[in-house]
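User: Sequence in, structure out. Go.
Assistant: Echoing your sequence, followed by the structure tokens.
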Amino acid sequence: MELDPATLGEASVYNFMMSTILPRPIAWVSTVDASGRPNLAPYAYFMGVCCVPMTVLFCPVVPPPPMRKKDTLRNIEAVPEFVVNMATASCIDAVNLSAAPLPHGESEFELAGVTPVASSRVRPPRVKEAAVAYECHVRDVIEISSSPGGGWVVIGTVLAAHVDDALIDPVTHHVDLQALRPVGRLGGGSFVNAASDTFTLTRYKTLADLAARK
């Protein structure tokens, strides 16, 4: 079956993408508005971009009417900084709670029962209970479409990163997957513990390595 996105409704396109582009890491994004009030929300359109400079992106989508932009995006337009707190098995219930549609200005930190702690380089607080957090300055915001089903790409330069000392090798800076237990988003209300079913493949770095495989 070949699908033509131009002939499909928004719901069909959404269902297809959500059930095929997976698992998706979850950015638990904290921001503040112009008055300094914090907001916390999860985003499953999220990925690292590159290492030099350390860069990440996430994509807020157009919310249901009557809102035109999510609080996260409105806050970033006012205060161009954010923190990506990583979603893990230990805090996934709080991540899910923070997705609830609270009125503007009310705190998802309080609703989810998590602790805001001061960041070192940006104004938005990070989540104390998150094992990994990236403090970011907004590099760019790209509007794809402000129509229903549309969204924006928010690109952030990482100014500082935080990680639980128990999870990281201090020499290689490799974080232990089994200890971190990151959670990925699947379709609908399904999630996956990314550390529960893993396997290893050989990475071929040179043609000689590839030839030796034979």
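User: And one key feature?
Assistant: Helices lie at 10-18, 71-78, 92-97, 108-112, 177-180, 207-213.
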